[in-house]
Write a structure and sequence with these properties.
Layout lengths: L3 H19 L3 E6 L4 E6 L6 E6 L3 H6 L6 H17 L6 E3 L8 H11 L5
Parallel strand pairs: 1-4
Antiparallel strand pairs: 1-2, 2-3
Helix pairs in contact: 3-4
Length: 118
């Protein structure tokens, strides 16, 4: 038998292997029921270059609930700003095996609108 978590992790492993093969900087998204997190990770996979989440103090004051599309949009804009500040324009989108839908999609579209290319 398989379960949903194992299937998601299998999809994530395949995506990350392809991104590592391309030696690209990746935008990694993690989602929980209450929060959403985004990290820009170096091509070697060993260093976080920029990060943003609904747990950040400045975000918590602006967003009432961290588990909705509005919060995901805020995080998408914030991670794009922080990536540009670090000198990163082009990334590979790593959705961690999650469906490109809802909050993950809202974060990606907001990051694109803020000038991040992927």
């Amino acid at each position: 038998m398989f379960n949903r978590k194992e299937a998601r992790l299998r999809r994530a492993r395949k995506t990350r292997a392809k991104i590592a093969e391309l030696k690209a900087v990746r935008l990694c998204v993690n989602r929980t029921n209450c929060h959403i997190y985004a990290q820009i990770i170096s091509p070697c996979g060993g260093k976080v270059l920029a990060s943003a989440s609904t747990l950040d103090k400045d975000v918590r004051t602006n967003v009432a609930n961290g588990g909705n599309k509005a919060a995901a949009t805020t995080i998408g804009k914030l991670i794009a700003e922080r990536a540009k500040a670090a000198g990163i324009e082009q990334v590979a989108f790593d959705r961690s095996g999650l469906q490109y839908h809802g909050r993950v999609q809202a974060l990606a579209e907001a990051a694109r609108e803020a000038g991040l290319k992927f």
